[in-house]
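In the current project phase, the collection of sequences with tokenised folds has grown. One resulting record follows, to show the layout:
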Amino acid sequence: MTERTHTAHVAEQFGAQAAAYVASAVHAAGADLDRIGVLVGAMPGAAVLDLGCGGGHVAFTAAAAGARVTAYDLSPDMLAAVAAEASRRGLTGIETRQGAAESLPFADAAFDAVLTRYSAHHWRDVPAALAEVRRVLRPGGLLVVSDIVAAEDPLLDTHLQAVELLRDTSHVRDYRLSEWRAMLGAAGFAPGAVLESRPYMEFATWIARMRTPNAHVAAIRALQAVAPAEVAAHFRIEPDGSFLLDSALIEARPA
């Protein structure tokens, strides 16, 4: 059996699907993305790091709001797709850099804002990544973390992590809001405003984006079929497997 690191697995998983994430309607819109646009728009000419940029939607939003953006990701294929889409949109304020969230190749206090969206649940070591973010963020700078979050209820948490891992084997964890607040505090941040939302996952496109194997799709559907009433109600699981997730955008600044 060929050995590979988690970092290599994430890059492999998402590199193959770069175009799908650039084109994803779920990732291209949302109240959290709108909020990011407002926050960056209030910082004219800001130097912004899009950490774990994925399909580039945060980078596009920040650049359109006037920021100078570094789109940073593990996957060279994803970065190439982001650069191509930025060129197509005429967004000249975006550069790309490749690497892991836990090791940022940037100088201390290099950025006015660090933004990350739908990425942190793949990071191998979130506390290490947040320590790096704290280092590269200028005093008084802004950190925005937007991601899928787990419920505080262990029953709901367990179901979420199970279906996430079956859908995408590079998944690590969707953290609870209480966990995010604790990790941010430990890294030297003061967590601020939180914007919560419930994005709708249309099942067919949700699995297609990740090329989920048929056996794993069947396992997800089997878990949904036997889910307790509390789980089915919370996630609003539909007959075709579509459901709602919990998402949160957290604004934070160095304490």
User: Anything to note?
Assistant: The CA atoms of residues 6 and 59 lie 25 Å apart.
